């Protein structure tokens, strides 16, 4: 896990404890964008439990194995549609950047438009379309 005083990987400029750490501890994200940011931080922290807990039960896999050779280090949010505190559906368009294991020189990025739904006051990731 990440140190609460470290800068949050999601790119808001806040500390992990004040930003995504609160969602990883179980607090519901108030918007689709904040849930997406917390999911990116979960990838960066290796927190598969948070990823599964915030994945909609209708599309959630039975298990999730994260690639230990990939370090997610930067998130760029390009835009959102709906997904606010009074919406029931929303989309977030983003790019996540990663590096491979030290010494490999591997780098990459994944662009995606993710769909989220809010049920019983909680946002869930449903699916995404590569961009």
Automatic annotation (TrEMBL):
| Membership in a protein family | Belongs to the UPF0225 family.
YchJ-like middle NTF2-like domain mapped to chain residues: 31-128
Q: What is this protein called?
A: UPF0225 protein AS188_01545
Question: Known InterPro entries for this protein?
Answer: NTF2-like_dom_sf, SEC_C_motif, YchJ-like, YchJ-like_M
